[in-house]
Amino acid sequence: MKKQLDLIAQAIFDKKGFNILALDVRGISTMTDYFVIAEGTVDRHVQALGRAIMDKLDEKGIAPLHVEGLLTGDWVVIDYNDIVIHLFMEGIREKYALEELWNKSKIVDLHIDVPTGGRAHE
Question: Any alpha helices (H) in the chain, and if so which ranges?
């Protein structure tokens, strides 16, 4: 599961998503085991983040059970059963405050490869 969380976080980072957070909600939610929450700048950016995640996991043979909000882009939810991803447009995340809703969860340490030196990749 940790590899999938890292893969999702890397896909978000590579598309310049930000404020990436993974929460372990096992034991406090029957809905899923993990939430990944991140932000994009505008609706098209959030849509691109969602597509990047789905493309990356599709390469591993993992398909989402359900996707919501991809057409509007202000809040995209991608359900992979054990992992549910919430992608918000900047400013919308604070309105719904999912971190507060799941404040008894544990934060998962994510591994993201960040380029060093030279130009950052796009």
Answer: 2-14, 43-59, 92-96, 98-101
- Report the number of secondary-structure helices (H) and strands (E) in the chain: 4, 6
User: What is the pTM (predicted TM-score) of this model?
Assistant: 0.90
Record the tokens describing residue 1, joined without a space: 């599961």
87 and 17 Cβ atoms separated by less than 8 Å: yes
C-alpha distances out from residue 46 to 2, 24, 72, Å: 23, 23, 9
Taken as a whole, the chain contains a residue count of 122
Q: Please tell me the distance from the alpha carbon of residue 111 to that of residue 27, in angstroms, as a whole number.
A: 24
Q: Residue 122: its pLDDT value, please?
A: 47
Burial 67-97, CB ≥16 within 10 A → b, else e = bebeeebbbbbbebeebbbbbbbeebbeeee
Q: What's the per-residue H, E or C state across 57-80?
A: HHHCCCCCCEEECCCCCCEEEEEC
